[in-house]
Hints:
This protein is mainly alpha-helical. The chain has helices spanning 3-27, 37-57, 63-80, 96-117, 127-135, 141-157, 162-174, 178-187, 196-209, 217-228, 233-245, 249-262, 268-283. The chain folds into four domains: 1-26 and 95-118, no CATH class; 38-81; 138-191, Serine Threonine Protein Phosphatase 5, Tetratricopeptide repeat, CATH 1.25.40; 210-288, Serine Threonine Protein Phosphatase 5, Tetratricopeptide repeat (Alpha Horseshoe), CATH 1.25.40.10. Helix content is 71%, strand content 0%.
Amino acid sequence: xxxLTAFILCALALLVGCVFWLIRPLVWARPLASPSRxxxxxxxxxxxxxKLKLDLSAGLVAxxxxxxxxxxxxxxxxQDTQAQDQDADTSFKPARSTQxxxxxxxxxxxxxxxxxxxxxxxxVWNPESQSSASNNPEVTQADIERMVSALADxxxxxxxxxxxxxxxxxxxxxxxxxxEAERAYDRSALHLQNNAAMLSDYADVAAANAxxxxxxxxxxLIDQALRLDPNDLMGLWxxxxxxxxxxxxxxxxxxxxxxxxxLPPQSEDAKVIGQxxxxxxxxxxxxx
Length: 288
């Protein structure tokens, strides 16, 4: 069986299946129960409330702003659900003309559209064109650089856009441009004061640019992050690393043991932290 034959058979099968599912409600029509307006409103507002809670847990909104938005959302919900649902007759009588239009015109339209917009010759495998496509990826390094540059301009115009900032920093890290990642954090530093996770990542970037030295700016950022959230995972890891490098072994042990308790017991991260704890205990002359 050639590729063209296989394609035609598959296309016919898809067309037959599509036509069957489209005319089935017309041939075997029956009344359909429509959901009430109240149930739809409830689902919508539950989804919006879940998004608000996710933003709160991610630190994108303050607690006061969350409470205000939640109150406003509840007020809107109560107002919308005051209207009573009205019964509607959803039964209908199928039209024969509609059935024939679907059965005849849908396959013909699909074939015509494919002949006009498709590429039938693509079914014939061409080694040269296949090799050329593999050597010319759709997304080039220049495209990536342009996207990152556009994102950097957007964040520069609005330094309070922490979601865009996080995406920009991840992009810089992936490209190995750690200096630019730190400068991006520097420009938005005033807007990070209440975000422990981003402060810890800021400290990690600053320490990487300082060749792993935590003294000064990285240590200040770590301390600030842990004051906001004593259980911040990245903050505890960096605090323990900084203390270990400074030979402050009791402090390193305390940070890493606290971090170990917050991690899933059988996870890879827990294993790594467990090994770090053993190294600290050896330095302190204690048995792991």
